[in-house]
Amino acid sequence: MKATIAIAIVSALLLICAYATKEASKKNKKAKLYVPQIDCDVKAAKILNPEFIAKCPPGCQDVKYRVYGTDIYASFSSICGAAIHSGTIDKSGGKILVQKVAGQSGYRGSFSNGIRSLSLPRWRESFIVSEGKPKKGVQYPSALEYASSKSTSAKGGSLRKEHQTTAVTSFPATQSTATTPKRLITTTTFVSTPPKPTVPSAITTTITTTQTTTVVTAKPQVAMHKVRDIGSSYVHPAYSSVAAGASRQVQAAQGRTQNQAFRGTSSQASNRNVPRLNTGLQRQEPSATFRKAAGNPTNLAMETDLWKPGSSLFDTGLSSKEDVIPKPLEPASQGNPNCKVDLAFLIDGSWSIGKRRFQIQKQFLRDIAEALDIGIAGPIMGIIQYGDDPSTEFNLKTYANTKDVKNAIEKILQKGGLSNVGRALSFVNKNFFEDSNGNRGGAPNIAVVLVDGWPTDKVEEASRLARESGINIFFVTIEGPDENEKQYVVEANFVDKAVCRTNGYYSISVPSWFTLHKVLQPLVKRVCDSDRLACSKTCLNSADIGFVIDGSSSVGTGNFRTVLQFVANISKEFEISETDTRVGAVQYTYEQRLEFGFDRHTTKQDVLTAVKRINYWSGGTSTGAAINYAFDQLFSKSKPNKRKIMILITDGRSYDDVQGPATAAHQNGVIAYSVGIAWAAQDELEAIATDPDKEHSFFVDEFDSLYRFVPKIIQNICTEFNSQPRN
Prior knowledge:
Elements: H1 2-28, E1 51-56, E2 69-70, E3 72-74, H2 79-86, E4 94-102, E5 111-112, E6 115-116, E7 125-131, E8 145-153, E9 159-167, E10 177-178, E11 213-214, H3 240-261, H4 286-289, E12 342-348, H5 354-372, E13 380-386, E14 390-394, H6 402-410, H7 421-432, E15 445-452, H8 460-468, E16 471-478, H9 494-498, E17 507-510, H10 520-528, E18 543-550, H11 557-571, E19 582-588, E20 592-596, H12 604-612, H13 623-633, E21 643-650, H14 659-667, E22 670-677, H15 682-688, H16 693-696, E23 697-700, H17 709-722
Parallel strand pairs: 12-13, 12-15, 15-16, 16-17, 18-19, 18-21, 21-22, 22-23
Antiparallel strand pairs: 1-4, 2-3, 3-7, 4-7, 5-6, 8-9, 10-11, 13-14, 19-20
């Protein structure tokens, strides 16, 4: 019996010891780390933890999740986008370790792992990304701390601001707040404090991209305000007006936000005046009251990239106070008469440019419009925005003065998408420069293409067709590809394949969006210099064409009229004016006669009438002498920038030598076409014609078949013109 009791006691002790050991091992066992997940659009500035591990979802390589910098990233970059760019994870997502570091004086953009990061002059906080493995001895948070602020208001007292951080792990909906799941909602609340005889302190708030409607019932009512930081701490002086305009409109928007928040609860709410407590304190203007508290971590979340499709950063629908002050009327400008050009600006609306750079691009266009002096007697302009597809923001006839153009530019919203420049150039060529869209005909057509980085499609074919239509193409490339990025460019040397000439006159490379303002004056000077606009000169408007017509007896009166109809059919295909193509004519037999010179008729109708009135002469056939005469009386008086084209029509062998006069004409820049009928000698036709003979020499058996050569001659003239070196 005693033995049984002893065994029972020992067993109980063993069980107790085993249980104690198990409990001790549980306590000593290391707790498993929970890794919080973040969305693709979460930026480092929104999270207050200096070091943390997080998990990125798949699909964060989209261009709308913008990244700034290389290796070290500005804090308003997408965390997951930076992780893919650095090679820490791929597009399928994964765990990453994020460490906050000091701000940098500059951030270099680059293309890596399918993501193009952007450059930035400076920013106040940075971060680096590495593989998501915890370091020994470091405890990482299982819930991330997001920036938010709270304040309360006293009855009849002053305002006090209390800053707090909130660990966000879930987002339950309530009756008082309507929001989108998985987004942090930041609000400003007021707490009661004893009355203090001080003015309200500075209020600091944080804005996120989620729009929120919060219904508050309190007595008395106090306005809630949101402040956004326009860009980084650095704004170039040339674009300070962008920030200033944004500041005024944000202040107006603050009033409107307050009015919406208290709709139905206060008859005093206004979108222009902030409701105040009856405390005897003077109301502070928003510019003084709502200052950004320097050095506060929550301010790192403030940023400009709050745009979403369908909205505009600065478009609040309200005007600033300055806009409502009456101003004396000024006489409307008719435009700069020394710059009569029709301009199409193709602006980059792709995701890669970002919202801040899109605003800089708009400001640049507004400054361009101011410098050009838009008007019906001077330059007129329209804008096409391209992304995946091009769309016309406004055409050439929509606005006739600088002020209206600038206002229209301010209202343009970013499209997003890729950078399909080739598709945009094709659209401009086929649609934009139509008479119905305001094309004036007598003014040069110019397309200025602004490109962020490089196009995402090929531009060569679309550009060639546009140039052949007489459109002068200029390329302004901002932050173009460096040597390491050129491997990702769809089409090598895309600028040289697009512009009118490859001598650098039609292309401008800008190293940064923040120095874009420096090329404004050079660009304006170039587009206004009509004498240098080479692509305005096409095969149809840049030649002096001299017809040398055989009037010998073998031709006959009836056939001579057929020859004149052939001359008229060719002439009417060209754009004839004093500054475009000019036409002259010589008739010859044994002798020569100048029917009319290049400077005689300056319209197409006048030329056609003059051709019709040429009288048949009759006589022998001295073709060699006729070539010499045509050079002396016509081509020696051609303008330097004109192509000299001679079209000689004959029906027989010449009585004199044609080889010597033809060679001399060729050496003096005359492009000679020979057209023979019936008894014309083939060897003489080839000697007269410019090489290659088969492209410049034609023969038919009958006069009635001459018309067949009209399209072929026009095509050859244009093919030869368009194949000239573009340098």
